[in-house]
Write a structure and sequence with these properties.
The protein is built from 7 helices and 4 strands. The chain has 194 residues and is mainly alpha-helical. The structure holds zinc ion.
Length: 194
């Protein structure tokens, strides 16, 4: 997948002190990378949808007929809400390390507040919120870059697997445009010594 400037710009936090609302921060070798505030925004969008899916009554779940772009082109019945819940949990389990997953489980899945988490995991308030930020950033990126069907954008996920084909994962740094080269205003003929 590729990141675009318009996407990072739309997701950036206006008050972010790192990217100042642009959604990009300097990467390696003159390129740019999405700012962490962009990853956190993606996480929040997915988490909001996760909460919505889990709080629905069982009978409300939508069964949808999805076109399968595979070889046999058979359509399949899918339970989108359940799939989203499962993907959200499985990706988080896979991406986070042991310690981070514990915090994620207590705070995001079981709804424990910071005080309870700090007591349980032996963290102070600062450590807790730093770790929450790191988890949100790690997962936001994973949810967006997941192949072939990313969890984000959420609307596309729920629209079903209609995209033509999976694209290979690209390693991030987005190429930034090169700054315009200033042309010399005056040129002088070079006189060579005879
Ligand atoms: Zn930012």
């Amino acid at each position: 997948m590729e990141w675009t400037r318009s996407e990072t710009l739309a997701l950036a936090q206006q008050s972010c002190t790192f990217c100042h609302g642009l959604g990009l921060r300097p990467g390696r070798a003159g390129s740019s990378a999405p700012c962490n505030c962009v990853f956190r925004a993606i996480f929040r969008a997915c988490y909001t949808r996760f909460i919505k899916c889990t709080s629905k009554e069982k009978y409300v779940s939508r069964v949808s007929l999805e076109a399968n772009p595979g070889r046999l082109r058979k359509s399949v019945w899918g339970l989108k809400n359940e799939e989203f819940i499962a993907d959200f949990c499985l990706v988080s389990r896979r991406v986070l390390d042991e310690q981070q997953y514990k915090l994620f489980k207590f705070h995001f899945l079981l709804g424990a507040d910071w005080k309870l988490c700090c007591r349980r995991l032996n963290l102070d308030r600062g450590e807790f919120f730093h770790e929450v930020y790191r988890i949100q950033q790690k997962l936001g990126r994973a949810f967006r870059e997941l192949e072939p069907y990313a969890l984000y954008p959420v609307d596309e996920y729920f629209a079903g697997p209609t995209r033509e084909k999976a694209r290979p994962v690209t390693i991030f740094p987005v190429e930034t445009e090169k700054p315009p080269q200033a042309k010399p205003v005056l040129t002088f003929p070079v006189r060579r010594a005879a």
